[in-house]
Amino acid sequence: MGEEKLVLGTIAATAVIHPTARIGEGTKIWNFVQVSEHAVIGSNCSLGKGVYIDRHVKVGNRVRMQNEVLVSNGFVIEDDVFIGPGVLFTNDKFPRSHKTRDLTGKKWIVGKGATIGGNATLMPDINIGEYSMIGAGSVVNKDVPKHAAVWGVPARFQGFVCYCGNVFKEKNPFQGEKQFQCPECGKSITVTYPSKENSKS
């Protein structure tokens, strides 16, 4: 096969976009992407090969999804989020083939500026804080606080991460609120330590 190319401006010919979906200006959609009914994709996003966006999913601006990401109904992805290849967003803790969960009124947020590493799995009914970072291959089954760095199976709190991506590792995560100044970029962040059950044991 030849080199993949975007056609029709920003949407590959092999992509399947439902007529009720809305795609923002400047967004690039690559081969074999599927965007389902009433999904909203913001401006200047990039959806890699094989991405699946379920019904009613909302994606903000400047979001970058690598190949084979699957986003299930119920998720809202805010601006400037990076999602690595093969990330899976699930929306039913107890699925059966003969029933579909009623998602009326359900909404889970991936906060602005968050990073989710490749092949991570996000379980249902959790929220991901702004500018947090989830390590590759993690299974996330609890809320991730703002600026928190988590990884593992299941994902555990490892420290905090700056806007620039620099991680501050922490061994004593039960000190309430704290301020860090990043030695890499000089910015300050104010964070709140997660509950004990979300933390590294």
Report on the structure:
0% of the residues lie in helices and 30% in strands. It has a single domain, classed as UDP N-Acetylglucosamine Acyltransferase, domain 1, CATH 2.160.10. By secondary structure, the protein is mainly beta. The strands form four sheets. A nine-stranded mixed sheet has the order 3-6-9-12-15-17-19-20-21, with no helix packed on it. The protein contains no helices and 23 strands.
What's the SSE blueprint?
Elements: E1 16-17, E2 22-23, E3 28-29, E4 34-35, E5 40-41, E6 46-47, E7 52-53, E8 58-59, E9 64-65, E10 70-71, E11 75-77, E12 82-83, E13 88-89, E14 108-110, E15 115-116, E16 121-122, E17 133-134, E18 139-140, E19 148-151, E20 156-161, E21 167-169, E22 177-181, E23 188-192
Query: What's the number of domains?
Result: 1
Query: Helical stretch count?
Result: 0
N-to-C SSE series? EEEEEEEEEEEEEEEEEEEEEEE
**Ends distance:** 49 Å
Largest sheet: 9 strands, mixed
